[in-house]
Amino acid sequence: MISCSSTKVIGTWKKSEEKTYNFNKIVILGIAHDAATRKVFEVAIEERMLADGYAAEGALDFLPPNANEDNISPELVMAFFKSAKVDAVMTISLLEVDDSRRYVPGTVFFFPYYGTYTFYDHYVEYYDYVYVPGFYAGEMDVFLEANLFDFETGDLVWSAQTETMDLNTISEIANSYADILVDDLLKSKVLISSINN
Fold it and tell me: Which of 56, 67, 82, 194 has the fewest beta carbons closer than 10 A?
């Protein structure tokens, strides 16, 4: 059965062990085709960062909801960010999906009764076979990468790769991811809180 999602950091990098940053507005930018999924991840990370004293905002709060590489250029994104007075951008992107799940049908066995087998018998047997729910066995692993950039200089200042296993709902995955990601970001001491100072 699929259980609640669990996320762990599998790699992290920091530009400088000594330097810390005090950003006034960090934009969370999900890089994906599906706007609804992007929104769930952006909001989860935004809420967790705000709770910990960091000024964060999801990019879909001020970019068009259907913004993607087909209808918005990188130059236009940069213009949106400049007008919103963004000084840092955290991108979230999918690296890989490893899906070893397989569907196991419901455990109903069908044995025809050749001598007295009627339409009713046939319908009842196949109804159970088709409509008794099965389940998924195995797991799906999703590998994501977060990169924090200084928007003014364009420099990458922190990066983390995560693995999420045992997927359930998108919101559970996003919340699990946000907690682990922000915990690692705080532990790295890259940022100075910009809200509670």
Answer: 82
Angle between helices 170-188 and 35-51 (to 10 degrees): 40
Chain CA centroid to CA 42, Å: 8
The amino acid present at 55, given as its one-letter code, is A
Using DSSP, state whether 135 is helix, strand or coil: strand
Helix (H) or strand (E) holding 31: strand 26-31
Q: Tell how far CA 55 is from the center of its chain.
A: 20
| 55-66 pLDDT per residue, tens | 999 988 877 666
Helices (H) and strands (E) in the chain, counts: 4, 8
Task: Give per-residue pLDDT as tens, 135-152.
Answer: 555 566 778 899 999 999
Q: What's 2's DSSP letter?
A: -
Which of 171, 167, 181 has its CA nearest to residue 28? 181
What are the sequence ranges of the domains in the chain?
6-94+141-188, 102-137
